[in-house]
Amino acid sequence: MDFSRLAAALDGNAALQRRARLAALSFVVLGGTEPVTVRVGERITVDRGAAANAAFGLTASPATWAEFFKPVPAVGFQSLVGMQRVGHLRVEGDILAWGRHMLFLEQVFAALRPGAPSSPPIAVGEPVIEPIVGRYLRLDFNGRPHRLYFEEAGQGIPLLCLHTAGADGRQYRALLNDPSITARFRVIAFDLPWHGKSSPPAGFETEAYQLTTQLYVDTVMAVSRALGLARPVVMGCSIGGRAVLHLALRHGAHFRAAIGLQSATHAEAGADTRLRDLGVLFRPDIHGQEAAAGTVACLIAPTSPRADKWETLWHYMQGGPSVFLGDLHYYFTDGDLRNADLAGLDGKCPLYLLTGEYDLSATPELTAELARVTGARHFEVMKGMGHFPMSESPVEFRRYLAPVLDRIAAD
């Protein structure tokens, strides 16, 4: 394990070079043949031994580092934060310094892996206007006026798409542009209040945003009814994958079917909860949206196309202050379904479940158990995919989604 290669991590990357100049950071890496100290500044240096004044230490076993070094590591070894999450990596020292630089360090440590084959840039050719139409919907629900943004394309069976926590409807851009899908489905992706182009309701400056089960269900039902959707299919990912279960429980007859991407009854907090406990997503001394991207980068598969991976992370970097944190209240606490009676849920609303193998949050094991309890008519693990299949690897995702849509259209 040659950690000296970290010294070359800035080469040819202007964005990392700019960040490194402002980082003024040192840390220790343990678990190789000997400890090394990595210093970040105008350039990166790697020295033998553990410096006493280093901000923190990253400790993992030689076997863990060896797996991390592979071009395509096993599940749980795809990133530093991922290894911390599942307990393969210990972070000791200034945990806030670690949280402040997570995404930057993931990019630095990527230099330890063999470079992926470069692909030629994709040329657009002649200018193209996409078939997606974006509109604003004004409606009242829960006693308050809202202005919500949604995009749609296609015709036929309504397919209402729910985005992940802290992100927005842009995650479904590939589905909205897929003529083989929009020929039969009216694909609709809306931004939850506070997200994307949807404004928070008036008076938001006095509130601490928190997403609850009731608020989420009410929002989806209000949008569906306002748009006059007749027996729509609802598809959601992550918190949206949880929401489709609540919608099926409470309003199953309203929907033709529910598609859960990364669905589970609950989310595991992980082996190390210190960053969450310290509120790293909403602190004045940390860029909360970069931290948000840093916390979810570990959920993306190492084989996902680079451009799609970084566009997915960009959506997280653009979120409003504390919005991701407010969504996680639903994901980890209020929306927990472990005590709910889910037996035979498929009988209330046909249920289809798809989960990426590299997801460390809603793992394939959790979704498999959900499929067993609910009697879901379809469950499949999506190989080489993570937590954001529709945005991190849209071409591969279509291979799994298309047969599900075929079955729904045929019913």
Provide key terms for this protein:
five-stranded mixed β-sheet; 13 strands; globular; Rossmann fold; AB_hydrolase_fold; 411 residues; Nonspecific Lipid-transfer Protein, Chain A; AB hydrolase-1 domain-containing protein; alpha/beta; 17 helices; eight-stranded mixed β-sheet
Outline the structure in words.
The radius of gyration is 22 Å and the shape is globular. The protein is of the alpha/beta class. It is 36% helix and 18% strand. The protein has 17 helices and 13 strands. The model has no long low-confidence stretch (mean pLDDT 95). The strands form two sheets. Strands 6-7-9-8-10-11-12-13 form an eight-stranded mixed sheet, sandwiched between helices. Strands 3-2-1-4-5 form a five-stranded mixed sheet. The chain folds into two domains: 3-114, Nonspecific Lipid-transfer Protein, Chain A; 133-269 and 297-410, 3-Layer(aba) Sandwich (Rossmann fold), CATH 3.40.50.1820. Helix 5 crosses helix 11 and helix 11 (288-296) runs antiparallel to helix 12.
